[in-house]
């Protein structure tokens, strides 16, 4: 049996980014087309024998699509009819019923080029097994969308099918004498087209304008183009397996210092070259998993009123630290709401904070070269967005640890611990759109304008 292939980035340029980008049906499409295909497969049973099996695939597809926007099929059901002669191999599992999962390989074709994808995690309810009758297993689930890169008909065809079946007793539990799960691999007899979604010309979406922030006190700041186009470092981050795809993004934002009643701008392009964030992303059963790593520290320079009246200016540098030994990256975990298409994103990273170039009321204060937090700041952020690849806003509250190594000739640690260290510091981060260099999507990356206030609720 051929193993259903995962979506490969090499095919993305022909058809789209695949299952990570999520969203509502393109263009608010009201009508949809119903797919109902009766197919024939050759399935290899655990005994090694091959049987002809009937497979019915049902699902809803949008009537039309939009170039650059996700095309999301509705909930899909794959019904597999195991013929009576083959049922004893299933009943040999030892249960009154069986449960299982199905994974259907899919070929997505546009303009003569095809890319493989999978519809994994389709689940069957507990289904009674009776000798002397066919066994019909109906596996259902939500399937990932596909984003067409251009116009032209988008055709979905069914490919290889894999079933994994496990026994259940009359009460839905696992029987005491249950045998290990069995796997049935099936190949289609010819090409089976499920649906064709037209993507007409003139439907490419306009590039969205960056969110309009409240301007900081230092003046308006707008989104800035990355200096020199797509950075050479973009995408130079490797995932654990080959189904993790590389990209890069810029972020910006504000980090409050509660005790000083002020905020520092993160990744300020007016202070210096902004730090790039490399990432790799992978599809999960519920959305997407992202690992990110800053190419260089985040730097900013801000002025606060120490003790409420004395202007103090300092450079803050935040350097990424491993989440745990051997994991020199941060994480974004995106979980998609299958009804709205909105992703709930949770981010986690650890940062070491260093303070340098300090002046108090215009007079330099020598804090040395190693004035930094004694431990790492543990930062957790949350947000909701259409897609973690398209960008959005994350925020959360974190504690600034105590400082060590501050001062030359005198210990200035107590000064910073008293005026800076402590809990309840808001961190609000704006993510730009992810540049996928291999597919030349959203490249070069843009430094987003930092969002000072939360966006209004969607109307």
Helix-and-strand structural type: mainly beta
User: Kindly state the mean pLDDT as a whole number?
Assistant: 79
Multimer state = single chain
Number of helices: 3
Rg is 27 Å
The separation of the N and C termini measures: 49 Å
The total count of strands amounts to: 26
Helix-strand string:
HEEEHEEEEEEEEEEEEEEEEEEEEEHEE
Low-confidence stretches: 1-30, 205-227, 455-459
Major beta-sheet overview: 9 strands, antiparallel
- Structural shape: elongated
> Percentage of helical residues?
under 10%
Strand content: over 45%
Give a description of the structure:
With 459 residues, this protein is mainly β. The chain contains 3 helices and 26 strands. The chain is elongated. Mean pLDDT is 79; it is low at 1-30, 205-227 and 455-459.
Give the gist of this structure.
With 459 residues, the protein is mainly β. It has helices at 12-15, 87-91, 413-419, and strands spanning 32-44, 50-62, 76-82, 97-110, 113-128, 135-141, 154-168, 182-188, 192-197, 224-225, 245-249, 251-257, 262-266, 277-283, 287-294, 298-306, 310-321, 330-336, 343-360, 363-365, 372-373, 377-385, 392-400, 403-404, 422-431, 446-447.
């Amino acid at each position: 049996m051929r193993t259903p292939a995962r979506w490969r980035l090499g095919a993305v340029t022909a058809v789209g980014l695949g299952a990570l980008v999520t969203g509502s049906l393109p263009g608010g499409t009201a009508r949809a087309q119903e797919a109902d295909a009766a197919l024939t497969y050759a399935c290899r049973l655990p005994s090694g024998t091959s049987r002809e099996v009937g497979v019915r695939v049902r699902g809803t597809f949008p009537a039309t699509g939009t170039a650059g926007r996700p095309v999301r099929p509705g909930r899909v059901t794959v019904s597999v009819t195991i013929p009576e002669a083959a049922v004893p191999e299933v009943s040999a599992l030892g249960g009154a019923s069986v449960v299982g999962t199905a994974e259907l390989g899919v070929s997505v074709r546009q303009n003569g080029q095809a890319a493989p994808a999978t519809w994994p995690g389709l689940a069957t309810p507990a289904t009674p097994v009776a000798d002397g009758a066919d066994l019909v297993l109906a596996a259902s689930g939500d399937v990932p969308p596909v984003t067409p890169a251009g116009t032209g008909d988008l055709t979905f065809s069914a490919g290889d099918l894999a079933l994994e079946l496990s026994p259940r007793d009359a009460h839905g539990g696992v029987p005491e004498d249950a045998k290990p799960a069995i796997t049935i691999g099936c190949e289609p007899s010819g090409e089976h087209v499920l649906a064709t979604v037209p993507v007409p010309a003139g439907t490419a979406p306009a590039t969205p304008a960056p969110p309009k922030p409240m301007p900081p006190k230092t003046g308006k700041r707008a989104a800035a183009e990355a200096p020199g186009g797509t950075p050479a470092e973009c995408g130079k981050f490797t995932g654990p397996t080959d189904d993790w795809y590389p990209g890069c993004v810029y972020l910006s934002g504000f980090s409050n210092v509660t005790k000083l009643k002020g905020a520092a701008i993160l990744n300020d392009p007016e202070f210096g070259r902004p730090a790039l964030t490399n990432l790799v992303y992978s599809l999960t059963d519920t959305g997407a998993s992202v690992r990110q790593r800053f190419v260089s520290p985040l730097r900013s320079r801000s002025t606060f009123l120490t003790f409420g009246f004395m202007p103090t200016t300092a450079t803050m540098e935040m350097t990424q630290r491993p989440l745990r030994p051997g994991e020199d990256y941060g994480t974004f975990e995106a979980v998609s709401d299958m009804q709205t298409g909105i992703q709930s994103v949770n981010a986690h990273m650890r940062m070491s904070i260093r303070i340098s170039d300090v002046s108090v009321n215009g007079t330099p204060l020598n804090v040395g070269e190693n004035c930094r937090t004694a431990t790492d700041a543990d930062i957790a952020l949350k947000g909701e967005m259409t897609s973690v690849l398209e960008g959005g806003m994350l925020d959360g509250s974190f504690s600034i640890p105590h400082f060590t190594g501050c001062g030359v000739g005198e210990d200035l640690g107590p000064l910073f611990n008293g005026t800076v260290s402590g809990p309840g510091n808001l961190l609000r981060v704006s993510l730009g759109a992810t540049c996928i260099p291999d597919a030349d999507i959203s490249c070069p990356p843009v430094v987003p304008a930092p969002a000072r206030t939360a966006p209004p609720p969607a109307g």
